[in-house]
Structures are given as structure tokens and as C-alpha cells.
Amino acid sequence: MNNFLRDRKSVREFRDKKVDSKTLDKVQESINLVLEEAKGENIGLSLYMNGVNIYEELKDIGGYSGTMIKSPHYIGLELKDSQDRTQIYGAYYTEKLITSINKLGLEACWVTLSHVDKEKRNSVFGNLGEKTDYILSIGYPPRRNPFAIEKPASARHGVEEIVFKDQIENPVSMDELETRAIDDLFYYIRFAPSSRNSQPWRFLLEKDKVTLLLAYDEDKDLTLVDAGVIMYYFEEMIKSLGISRTWKLIDGNFEGKESKYKYIAEFEI
């Protein structure tokens, strides 16, 4: 559990080197396996070899604030409808794919296409472009100086800030988490990636379940991709405690004193 998320870093620079064909074949195999598991969800994943062309087409418009990530290859995430479930599980299975990609010695980085109009997306990705809201930059990470001091991880919310006990905005105590042997789980889950490092996830801990919520101020700040990402890592990490269950999606909203909250899912513990 210690290294599972602390080692998950979003690389924003890639070596100017194409991935070898055998490794790309394994990437495609990983995509096929993930799509087989995601059968029934309205999503697609497509590998694009022509990274140079895609980068040139999306330069200055793709990514947050027009910061397009350059890489030798990309994977497109197609969300085939606008349902919350599709956005959540599109992100869930994309993160699962990233785990497989990392095992091949490659790195990946999410790139949003929210500011790229449909006409442009169609010209870049063909018929799938209109539904391609996100892409992954993939490739070899840059070489690093082994003697350089590694930069510390970005700032994270404290456990008491993201975990509530019985009522929303009622902070949990570390003693409570330690008694239930889930203190490490919530300590390390904080290192999950999120849009602009916003860390919007909140967990409502009750006697026999955990409820996942997203905190937000304005509707435009609510990104359901963050929900799918954290759901995947939570399920994977809690397996180390001998619990192999899955989240059940729920719906609802709550307006607290500190923030607005959207109910996402429940997990029995």
C-alpha cells in the first residue's frame, strides 16, 4: 500500500523516442483487456501512433490552459454518452490501463480536450473525435540524474480534512481510523492524482460503509473523472486488507458550511 500511490506520478515530459513495436503491441493488448473488463460501459480506448501529428494539431489548445503535452504516442478515451456513470467509469478504467502501462516501463499523463472544439477533434481523431474528451500522453520518461535530490510530493490535504465521521464536515479522528485498521488506507489514498491537484474527494465513514463525495464550490469545478480515479485506487489499495469489493454508484447533493458536495458511491466495509 505504501508505494502503490506514492509512485504514481503524472509525467509531463517524455523522451523524444518512439516506443518499440513489441511494447506497443503489449499496450494494445492491455487496452483490449481493459475494454473486455469494461464491457457494458459506454466507453472506448484507442491507441494513436502518430504522436507528432497529434501534438502539432493540438498545440496551444489541448490540455489545461492550452498546455499540450508532447509525447510519441497517445491513447484516446471516448465517452460515448454524457451520463455520470460513463464519465466515472471511463476514468476508472483509464487509470487501470495506466497501471498496466507503467508495468511496461512507460509513463502516462492525462490531457483534457475540453477546450478543443468538435470539428477540430474530428479532424485529428476521425469519427471518434467528437466523443474523445481526454487523451493520455504515453512514452518513455526522461532520463533522470540518479544523484539529484528528488522533489517532494505536492502538498496534500490532511486525513482529517478528507475523511468525515457519521456526518459531512465532522472530521474523523486518527484514533478511530487506527482502531478500524484503515489509517494507512486513508493516509496513502491522498496521493491519488486529481485534476489540477484539486484533491476534491471526501469520504464519509459510517459503521459499515464508506461514502465517496466530491467537494466543489461551483458546478464548473466538478470533474467526475476525479471520482473514477479515486474509486479505482481505493479498491486496489483496500485489497491489502483482505477486502475485495466494488463501489456502488449513488446520487445526491449536500450543501455544507465549507463546500458543496456531490454523492458519488458507497463501499461496504
Automatic annotation (TrEMBL):
The Putative nitroreductase TM1586 domain extends over: 5-236
Coiled-coil stretches noted in the UniProt entry, renumbered to this chain: none
- Which InterPro entries does the UniProt entry name for this protein? Nitroreductase-like (IPR000415), Nitroreductase/BluB (IPR050627), TM1586_NiRdase (IPR029478)
Annotated Gene3D superfamilies: NADH Oxidase (3.40.109.10)
Which GO-annotated molecular functions does the record name? Answer: oxidoreductase activity
Q: Which domain of life is it from?
A: Bacteria
Q: What is this protein called?
A: Nitroreductase
Q: Which organism is it from?
A: Gottschalkia acidurici (strain ATCC 7906 / DSM 604 / BCRC 14475 / CIP 104303 / KCTC 5404 / NCIMB 10678 / 9a)
Q: In the record, what lineage is assigned to the organism producing the protein? A: Bacteria, Bacillati, Bacillota, Tissierellia, Tissierellales
